[in-house]
Amino acid sequence: MASSWGRQGGFYQRLSASGKEKCSPEDDVFVFSKLTYSWFSRLISIGYKKPLERDDLFELNEGDSPYSVCPNFEKQWRKEMQRSTTGLKASYIERMLFKKTSFCKPSLIFPLWQTFKFLLIKVAFLKVTADILAFMGPQIMKALVTLSENHPGSHRSGYGYAIALFFVVLSQTLLHQLYQRNNMLTAVKIKTAVVGLIYKKALTLANSSRRNYTTGEIVNLMSADAQQLMELTVNLNLLWSAPFQILMAVFFLWQELGLSVLAGVAVLLFIIPINALVAAKVKSLKKSQMRYSDQRVKLLSEMLHGIKILKLYAWEPSYQRKVMSIREHEVDVLKSSGYLATYSMLTLTCIPFMVSLATFGVFFHVDEENVLTAAKVFTSISLFNILRLPLFDLPSVISAVAQTKVSLSRLEDFLYAEDLNPEDVNINYSGNHAVGFIGASFRWDKSGLPVLKNLNVSIPEGSLVAVVGQVGSGKSSFLSAILGEMEKLEGTVQRRGVNISGGQKQRVSLARAVYSNADLYLLDDPLSAVDIHVGKHLFEKLIGPSGLLKSKTRILVTHNLTLLPQTDLIIVMEEGRISQMGTYQELISKRADFAELTQVFTTENRSEETTLVKVSSSKEECQLGESLPQRELLKHKDPSFDRWRTHSKSKEKVATGGMKMAVVLKYLQAFDWRWVWLTIAAYLGQNALAIGQNLWLSTWTAETAKINDFTEWKQLRNYKLGIYSLLGFIQGLLVCCGAYVLNRGSLSASRALHHQMLDSVLHLPLQHFETNPVGQIINRFTKDLFVVDIRFHYYLRTWLNCTLDVIGTILVILSASPLFVVVVIPLGYLYFTIQRYYIASSRRIRRLAGASHSPVISHFSETLLGGSTIRAFGHQERFIRKNYDVVYENLVYFYNNVISNRWLSVRLEFLGSLMVFFAALFVILAGNTVNSSTVGLSISYALNVIQSLNFWVRKACEIETNAVSIERVCEYAKMDKEEPWIMSKRPPVGWPDRGIVEFINYKAQYRKDLGLALNGVSFQTRSKEKVGIVGRTGAGKSTLTNCLFRVLEGSGGKIIIDGIDISTIGLHDLRGNLNIIPQDPILFSGTLQSNLDPLGKHSDLELWEALELCDLKDFVQSLPKKLLHEISEGGENLSVGQRQLVCLARVLLRKTKILVLDEATASVDTETDNLVQATIRREFYNCTILTIAHRLHTIMDSERVLVLDAGRILEFDTPHNLLQQQGTFSEMVAEAEITR
Question: Which segments within 676-716 are labelled E, that is strand?
Fold first, then answer.
């Protein structure tokens, strides 16, 4: 269904392309259809016939969509922000719940209440009505049992009671499901509103604030904290409903048992604080578990983003051990949580028994004449069963309130964090300059020192300005200040409106910016990732004085000093200040140091990595884009574009069809079969004993009714009570045993499946990571593993328990009324028909819902990474709308899932109501043949089984749905892996000792449907030879490296290194004995020391020596923690050049006989490049060096040069001979204007 959304009147609206939007008919149907969800039956029917697709589902009504929910909430939030700044007192709700007396920051509570108060009041009304009706069932049952005791043949009154019981139970069901529907949808609206606010805040967050939050932490606010708020909202009514139900139960129990009920209350008062302590401990353990989980996922995320480095350096086992170490801590916490769950399961199962035992025991001792009748016993048992859930839930909800308070505080801290100040940059000014700084100083955050100091510059419109300087001099910060991304300390900044385009694929970024037709373009080293030919073409045709952008203002940060004569103005940065400024001729004539610098490099053509920044214009919006032929920008096609297409098409798979038993068997195998059988035995035993307790009470009360001499009864009373106690005690032991073995088995499964998945992922070939989103793998290690750790064994246990409960109930009712078999058969048939009918649709909706969550997280993560780009383009509204779109899709699945659950619950509980009705009817029809104890036993079991029937099907569906997570966790084990890391044949110690590399007719291709990336390549290096490898973009230079490291396996030919065919040894034996400095400087969060020496093999002295060789020693010594300086996520607190130097230092520590340089100095200034090249020549003088270069000056001093084109070798000789031959290499040198 094609549709789009627009914004009108300040609100986003969904616009259907077809005009036939399938909004939910829920609001327009009759009351009966609304209460029974019959309007949803059509979708259930479709899902039964075929797998549901997105177009089959009902859309959200306008009031439920984020397009109306988010703006309404934002309006209230703005009021709260204004209210907090005036210092008003906290609201009554906040004073009551959180004991706030005044605001130090805005609170989410008040705007949430103002936005959703009518929905919350409606939900509370439905809840209290359903709770009251829940207590009417036991009272009608009491009347029936009393009737059976006193007037066993009175059928007419009995029929009335049976019908009344049916309608009361049915009414309670309908109201409860209506409550659940409204409760779930209100909760998700609250989450949607908060998520929308978090997203908008992320687009305005100041850099100083942004540095306090990693991307993962902000995503966590959306996924975890907002989810916690939603979960509390779902259970919020239990804060008053649970005490209300407890008081109602105590009131009715008082009517039955008098003062003795206080004994039961005393047990409850004893259990509740213990439950609260357990809940608090569980909360503490959950925090610990989440902390370890965050550490594990953070490390995994960095590993996956830097997987190429891990594979090239053979670091996978080391990092695998780090992950497994964190995982063991996480599993230890899960073990402790599992043992606490044993207590929770004990109290949940045994609360009715413990309360009844205490109450009945005191009842007998309060008055010797007290006698337990069937009416008293089974009415009390039914009330005790009602007590079970509120008693169990109340401490958990109280704990959840405390936990949500923490989440609210985190959310409020984030939402109140400092925003970018739009007034830092004045865009409304008169003058003919495009950018102006007047005495301006800037810093990145409030605690930091000024990075840019006393800037004074005026840049005329339409000029080309070059910004040059050494690594860390402030060039990129200069552009950030223009964009308003830094905090201004003083001075004035003026500029025209600005946009930014950035990304790793520079030509795409350039094209995107140029098509947008801006007035101002900010270019941060734009040409490093392309070869000389393409770089020259882009400068001449786009950036330079005669290029397409010649009438635009262009500020170019560059290390390519040969471009400077063609610029209108040059700004030289030094330690955050403008040290020199003027035209090229002015600086050459007046400043000797500048002239000396440029003279050294006049023959060098340097091009650097680009992030392109541009400024939008309101005029001529489309003309420029139309005037630039697309073929000019995309003329030089890179094979990586084909891999991008694969990546863009790689969407998360959504499973279809029923659950595969092989998946469950795989889980049970990891669970360990001995724990499986012990669990089943324990649950069989505890359910049998639970039935035994009630049968014992039934027999006891039946005997009581027949005894005339109470002296004899009193003598047997203690014996009867003792047996009842013993049965309960043994049941409690079996509950503990069941919980223990379940915990052991689930931990075994968690360990085994995580280890298998991690090992499988690390053995995948690099191409898998290049063609599949990393988010999909992270999803397996978070969402799917959460199912393995927490959910799946719980669903299996609940399903098993419900199965045994239903079977036990039917057997009890059949023993009381054998005629009930006539009803059981058709009810059973209807039950399984509804189950089969529903489960296909529900399973599919849940699977689609699971897949729809990834785009929400992915879009948010991308927004965080590209925030400055979005702001500079002024596309915030477009991205907010996109966020609403992906959230809307997720909500559509959530809504349909909620309604499908209600559809099922109403029908199953209707069957349960019929079961209650027929259980009552048949005992009435039995008349004198059935005693009152049997009547009470039969009806109390029937009342209790309604929830079990519903849970049985729901948990069966949960098992089917969540089995997909098990399948997805296991799927990597079936994927094609790279070759073994270690093989039986291993190279000798010290290999390679000469460094001779030989390619023999080598062929390679990235995919079978693509052409050969290398085609018949044959050459041989000499020992310790320095070989340069050049070629146009897409010639196969990087592919050659990939083949050498066997990142890409060959499809023909051989590679021989010092006499060993590299295909005959393990990957780690190969990669561990080679060395490479890659083009992308990948660092991991942690200390500088751990980045230099991840395996911990080198001393501090060796580290300092390596840093000194890379000209980083002074910088590191200036840091407070020196080698222990914390590197932030992705190395963001270092400049790109500094990151590259750290990577160089890392390689200097890892000396081997063969070194590959892949544009290793692309992101450093000229002086640093000289230093690096000299260091490499000196430190690796006795090594074979293969240098892949776009910039020809870096390989002009090579002993030989290999020229590639379209995967073939065109030339291979000394630079001198190649220049004499007047071939391809000679042409490239001429184009680069390099002289020898």
Answer: none
How high is the mean pLDDT of the chain?
A: 80
For residue 457, the tally of other CB atoms under 10 A from its CB is 17
Q: Are 998 and 1056 in contact (CB under 8 A)?
A: yes
Separation CA 905–CA 953 (nearest Å): 9
- Residues 1148 and 1143: their CA atoms lie apart, in Å, by 9
**Separation in Å, CA 480 to CA 448, 484, 492, 867, 998:** 16, 6, 15, 12, 47
Distances (CA, A) of 925 to 144, 150, 877, 940: 12, 16, 70, 18
DSSP 795-817: HHHHHHHHHHHHHHHHHHHHHH-
Rounded Cα distance between 870 and 689, Å, is: 65
114-134: pLDDT as tens digits: 999 999 999 999 999 999 998
Residue 585 has pLDDT above 90, yes or no: no
**pLDDT of 423:** 77
Amino acid at the residue 1019: F
pLDDT of residue 54: 86
With a CB cutoff of 8 Å and minimum separation 6, the contacts of 42 are none
What H or E segment, with its residue span, contains residue 1190? none
Give every CB contact of residue 1160 below 8 A, 6+ residues apart in sequence: 1077, 1078, 1079, 1140, 1143, 1144, 1172, 1176
**DSSP strands (E only) in 879-925:** none
**Least-confidence region, from 161-170, 375-384, 777-786, 1161-1170:** 1161-1170
Q: For 375, left (φ over 0), alpha (ψ -120 to 50), or beta?
A: alpha
Q: Which of helix, strand or coil describes residue 578?
A: strand
Q: How confident is the model at residue 1044 (pLDDT cuts 50, 70, 90)?
A: very high
The count of other CB atoms within 10 Å of the CB of residue 55 is 8
Max mean pLDDT among 9-18, 151-160, 403-412, 940-949 falls in 403-412
The three-state DSSP-derived secondary structure of 583-634 is: CHHHHHHHCHHHHHHHHHCCCCCCCCEEEEEEEECCCCCCHHHHHCCHHHHH
Higher pLDDT, 544 or 775: 544
At 1050-1081, the pLDDT tens digits run 888 999 999 899 999 999 999 988 988 877 77
CB 605 within 8 A of CB 1193: yes
Packed helices 876-926 and 792-816: angle between N→C axes, nearest 10 degrees: 20
Amino acid, single-letter form, for residue 678: L
Query: What are the pLDDT digits (tens) for 408-428?
Result: 888 888 888 888 887 778 777
C-alpha to C-alpha distance for 1107 and 1145, rounded to whole angstroms? 6
Task: State the virtual CA torsion across 484, 488, 492, 495 in degrees, nearest 10.
Answer: -10
Per-residue confidence (pLDDT) for residue 711, from 0 to 100: 66
The SS3 call for residue 579 is strand
C-alpha 480 chain-centroid distance = 30
Q: What is the DSSP string of 1092-1138?
A: H-TT--S-HHHHHHHHHHTT-HHHHHTSTTGGGPEE-GGGTTS-HHH
What is the percent of the chain where pLDDT is above 90?
12
SS3 646: helix
> What are the C-alpha distances in Å from 722 to residues 257, 689, 693, 711, 729?
20, 15, 11, 18, 10
> How far apart are the C-alpha atoms of 946 and 913, rounded to whole Å?
7
Whether 516 and 623 have beta carbons less than 8 Å apart is answered as no
Per-residue pLDDT reduced to its tens digit, 22-69: 677 888 888 888 899 999 988 988 988 888 888 888 888 888 889 999
Alpha-carbon gap, residue 1092 to 1144, rounded angstroms: 9
What six digits make up the tokens of 626? 């139309």
Q: Bigger pLDDT: 1026 or 1134?
A: 1026
Nearest Cα neighbor of 679 from 947, 416, 345 is: 345
Of 508, 469, 612, give the one whose Cα is nearest residue 1166: 469
Cα(first)–Cα(last) distance of the chain, in Å?
64
